[in-house]
Design goal:
The chain is an alpha/beta fold and about 300 residues long. Helix 3 (about 120-135) crosses helix 8. The protein has a six-stranded mixed beta sheet, with helices on both faces. The chain has a five-stranded mixed beta sheet with strand order 3-2-1-4-5, sandwiched between helices. The chain folds into two domains: about 1-100, Nucleotidyltransferase, domain 5, CATH 3.30.420; about 105-285, Nucleotidyltransferase, domain 5 (2-Layer Sandwich). The radius of gyration is 20 Å and the shape is globular. Strand 7 and strand 8 (about 150-160) form a beta hairpin. The longest helix has 27 residues, at about 220-245. The chain starts with a strand and ends with a helix. It has helices spanning about 50-60, 80-90, 120-135, 170, 185-195, 220-245, 265-275, 285-295, and strands at about 1-5, 10-15, 30-35, 70-75, 95-100, 105-110, 140-150, 150-160, 170-180, 255-260, 280.
Length: about 300
C-alpha cells in the first residue's frame, strides 16, 4: 500500500506492507519526500513537474502491491483531481483514495471536526498506537503531539481506558490544540517584512549551542529569537495541559511526540531546555496514521 501525505511545502510517500495491523505500530518499509512548494505550481497547476514525477517513478520501481494509494491532503491550494491525474501517469492500474476527516477512526472534541486539518487527526490516531508499542511502565491517559513543519501544530489526544472497545475510534479522542508558524516560516516572514533582516537557513538552528547570550550579530539574534519564541510557546502549552490534567491517575509526565520535517531540530532544542521531559520522535507519524486508517477498514 502507498500512503501519501501532501503537506504545505513537501509531499511524503510511504510504502507499507499490506499485512494486518494487529497491535504493531506501522512503519513504512520505504519513504520518499518531495519538496513541491505549493505557491509555485507549474505545468498548468500540477503539483509535480516532470523531474519530480520521475523521482517518484524511480522510487516506485521494484515495489510489489502498489495498486492501492491512500492520500491525505493538507495543502489548501492542491487540486485533488489534478493530483490524481499526476499519479495515474505513474501507476495507471492503481486505485486512488483521497481520505477525508470522516475516514479517520478517532473521536473529535472540537467545535468543527470537518475543518480540522486531516494531518492533525492522522497524527493523533497514530500517536495512540505509537504509545501502545512503547510499553511504558504506566497508563497513559493524555498525549501531546507536535508536528513541526511549515506550521507547527501542538495537539492533545485523550485515551479513555474505561471503553471496552478495541477500536481506536472508541477510546481515543482528538481534543484540539494550538497552531503557530514553523522555523522556516518565521525566518522567511521576518526577511519579507523587514528587508534588512537576512533569511536564516534551517541548518543554523542546529548550532544553537554555540551561540552566546545576548547575541553578538544579526543572524544569531534572529536564531535566538525564533527558537526562544517556539520553545517558550510549546512549553507554555505543555504546562497548561499538565495543569488541566493534574488529577490523572498516574500523576506522571505527559508524553510528547514530535513529528514533521523539523521534528529532530525542535525536539533537540526542547530537550536541551527541559531535559526531564518525556520526549519521543516519530518522523513518519502522519503516514502511519494513513496506514492505520486503511488497515482498520479492512
Amino acid at each position: 500500500m502507498i500512503a501519501v501525505d501532501i503537506g504545505n511545502t513537501r509531499a511524503k510517500f510511504g510504502y507499507f506492507s499490506c499485512q494486518p495491523l494487529q497491535s504493531r505500530f506501522p512503519t513504512p518499509m520505504s519513504c520518499i519526500r518531495i519538496l513541491h512548494g505549493k505557491n509555485k505550481y507549474q505545468n498548468n497547476g500540477n503539483l509535480f513537474d516532470a523531474r519530480k514525477l520521475n523521482l517518484i517513478a524511480d522510487w516506485l520501481q521494484n515495489k510489489q502491491n502498489c495498486n492501492n494509494w491512500n492520500i491525505a491532503i493538507t495543502a489548501a491550494n492542491c487540486n485533488p483531481d489534478s493530483l490524481i491525474d499526476n499519479f495515474i501517469s505513474l501507476a495507471p492500474n492503481s486505485n486512488f483514495n483521497v481520505l477525508t476527516n470522516d475516514n479517520i477512526p478517532i473521536n473529535s472534541n472540537v467545535n468543527s471536526p470537518t475543518k480540522i486539518g486531516i494531518d492533525r487527526l492522522l497524527d493523533a490516531l497514530a500517536a495512540t498506537k505509537f504509545i501502545e508499542n512503547k510499553s511504558l511502565p504506566r497508563i497513559i491517559e493524555t498525549i501531546i503531539v507536535i508536528d513541526a513543519g511549515t506550521a507547527i501544530t501542538i495537539d492533545v489526544v485523550k485515551i479513555n481506558y474505561n471503553s471496552t472497545s478495541t477500536s481506536t475510534s472508541n477510546y481515543a479522542t482528538f481534543e484540539g490544540g494550538a497552531i503557530l508558524a514553523g522555523l522556516k516560516t518565521l525566518s522567511v516572514t521576518l526577511n519579507h517584512a523587514i528587508n534588512k533582516l537576512p533569511e536564516i537557513n534551517i541548518a543554523d538552528f542546529n548550532s544553537i549551542e554555540n551561540l552566546t547570550y545576548p547575541a553578538k550579530n544579526t543572524e544569531s539574534a534572529i536564531v535566538i529569537g525564533i527558537v526562544g519564541s517556539l520553545i517558550s510557546t510549546i512549553n507554555f502549552f505543555v504546562k497548561k495541559v499538565e495543569t488541566t490534567n493534574s488529577n490523572e491517575s498516574n500523576n506522571q509526565q505527559i508524553p510528547i511526540i514530535f513529528t514533521g520535517g523539523d521534528a529532530q531540530i525542535i525536539a533537540n532544542l526542547y530537550a536541551r531546555e527541559f531535559p526531564n521531559s518525556c520526549l519521543s520522535i516519530a518522523p513518519d507519524l502522519t503516514l502511519a496514521g494513513i496506514a492505520i486508517t486503511v488497515f482498520q477498514q479492512q
